[in-house]
Write a structure and sequence with these properties.
By secondary structure, the protein is an alpha+beta fold. Helix content is 31%, strand content 24%.
Length: 382
C-alpha cells in the first residue's frame, strides 16, 4: 500500500491598506492609492479591489494581474449578507468563496476589526512572522538607484542649508539672516523647497540646535544660536517612486570650542571607520558594539545623567527603502548582514550642555566594500 504525502496549501496573501503610507501595499501593487483598498493573491495572480474613482488608473499604472470593481462586489456581498454586510470583510469573504481560498496570511499591521470578523466567517487569518515580503530587505540595482535619487534630493537640501549658514551673521549670540533671526522653521522650509525641486517631499526634517539636538528625533524649533551644534537630518521621499533618502549632517556657525571640535571628530571618524565594516556575512550586532567601544575608548561613554540617557543612545543604522525605517537594524541584537541590504550608518553622541553630533550616510551591502548610495561633503564649521 503506497502512502501519498499530503501537503497543506500555503495561504494566500491579503492586504487592506492605502499605498501612500503602507510600504507593503506599495511594494505589492506599485501604484499610489490614498485610501485603504483590498489586495490579495489568488493562485499566483495579484488582484486588487478598488472603487470606480481609482479603477482605470490602478489597472493602467499598477502591477496587478486583475483589478475588480469595489462597487460591483459590494452590491453582490450586500445582497448575500443583508444587514450583516460590513466592509471590507464581507467583500473579502465573497472573494474567498469564489476563489476557493480558506486561508490568508496578513501583515502585522492588518486591521484587527476586519481580521476578527473574517475569522468569525470561518476564514483563517494568519499573521506573518516577520516581514510579509522578505524580498523587500534586499534591494535590486534599480531600487538602489531610486534610493540614490532620494539622497540626491537630501544633498540639495544640505546645499540650501549651507547657503543660509554662509550668508548668516552672528549677532548677540544668534544667527541672523536677511535681518531676522534664523530659525529651525525657516531652515526646514528652505530644505523642503530644495527637495521639491528634485521631485521629493521632505517632511518632518530635523533642524535641531543646542540641547534640542540631544534628543535625536526632536525636529527643532525657534531661533538658532551661534557657536552651537545644529543637527540637520533630511529624509525625503521621492514623489514618483515612494523611495526614501536619509542623510544627516551637523553644523556649527561661529567659533567651536576645543570640546566641540573633539566631539565632532569623534563621531565623524568613527562613522568613516564603521562604513567599510558593513559587508555581507558580518554581524550587525558586532559592528554596533565596535562603534560603542570606539566611543568609550575616546572618552565618550554612554550613561544616564540624572536619569537621562547621554552618549551613543541609539542604534548605528537601519534599513531604508519604501519606508524610512525598515529591517534590518544595526543595533545590539542586529542580524548578520546580507548582500543587497540598504542601510544607514549614523553614529551620534549627545551630551546636554555640550550638544549633539550625528553624521549619516547610506550604503548597500556587498560581499566586498559597501556601495555608497549617498554623497555630500562633511564641512561642519562655518
Amino acid at each position: 500500500m503506497s502512502h501519498q504525502r499530503i501537503t497543506k496549501t500555503p495561504p494566500e496573501l491579503l492586504l487592506y491598506a492605502d499605498s501612500e503610507s503602507d510600504a507593503d501595499m506599495l511594494y505589492f501593487g506599485g501604484v499610489f492609492v490614498p485610501d485603504p483598498f483590498i489586495a490579495f493573491t489568488c493562485r499566483g495572480a495579484r488582484v486588487a479591489v478598488v472603487s470606480q474613482l481609482e479603477f482605470a488608473r490602478v489597472r493602467k499604472e499598477g502591477r496587478f494581474d486583475e483589478v475588480l470593481s469595489l462597487e460591483e462586489l459590494s452590491q453582490r456581498a450586500r445582497r448575500a449578507e443583508g444587514d450583516a454586510f460590513h466592509h471590507p470583510e464581507s467583500v473579502i469573504a465573497l472573494l474567498a468563496r469564489e476563489c476557493r481560498i480558506r486561508r490568508f496570511r496578513v501583515p502585522a499591521t492588518f486591521p484587527c476589526g476586519p481580521a476578527f470578523r473574517l475569522r468569525a466567517k470561518r476564514i483563517s487569518i494568519e499573521v506573518a512572522e516577520g516581514a510579509l515580503f522578505p524580498a523587500r530587505e534586499r534591494k535590486t540595482d534599480a531600487e538602489a538607484a531610486l534610493i540614490r535619487a532620494g539622497n540626491a534630493a537630501a544633498a540639495a537640501g544640505f546645499r540650501a542649508v549651507e547657503k543660509l549658514l554662509r550668508q548668516a551673521q552672528v549677532r548677540n549670540g544668534y544667527l541672523v539672516h536677511s535681518g531676522r533671526r534664523l530659525t529651525s522653521e525657516r531652515v526646514q522650509e528652505v530644505v523642503a523647497i530644495a527637495c521639491l525641486g528634485h521631485g521629493a517631499i521632505a517632511a518632518n526634517t530635523i533642524v535641531a540646535g543646542g540641547d534640542q539636538a540631544c534628543d535625536p528625533h526632536c525636529r527643532g524649533s525657534g531661533p538658532l544660536r551661534a557657536h552651537q551644534f545644529i543637527i540637520v537630518d533630511i529624509f525625503p521621499r521621492v514623489s514618483k517612486t515612494g523611495y526614501f533618502g536619509d542623510m544627516t549632517r551637523t553644523y556649527l556657525k561661529g567659533r567651536p570650542s576645543d570640546a566641540q571640535k573633539a566631539l565632532y571628530h569623534a563621531v565623524f571618524e568613527t562613522q568613516q571607520a564603521a562604513i567599510p565594516a558593513h559587508r555581507a556575512g558580518r554581524s550587525a550586532a558586532a559592528i554596533y558594539r565596535s562603534v560603542r567601544r570606539a566611543f568609550d575608548q575616546r572618552g565618550y561613554p554612554t550613561r544616564r545623567d540624572n536619569g537621562v540617557p547621554v552618549g551613543f543612545i541609539h542604534g548605528l543604522g537601519h534599513g531604508l527603502g519604501l519606508a524610512v525605517h525598515e529591517p534590518p537594524r544595526v543595533n545590539p541584537s542586529g542580524p548578520r548582514l546580507r548582500s543587497g541590504q540598504v542601510l544607514t550608518v549614523e553614529p551620534g553622541l549627545y551630551y546636554p550642555g555640550l550638544g549633539g553630533v550625528r553624521v549619516e550616510d547610506v550604503i548597500r551591502v556587498t560581499p566586498a566594500a559597501p556601495e555608497p548610495l549617498s554623497a555630500h561633503p562633511y564641512r561642519w564649521a562655518w
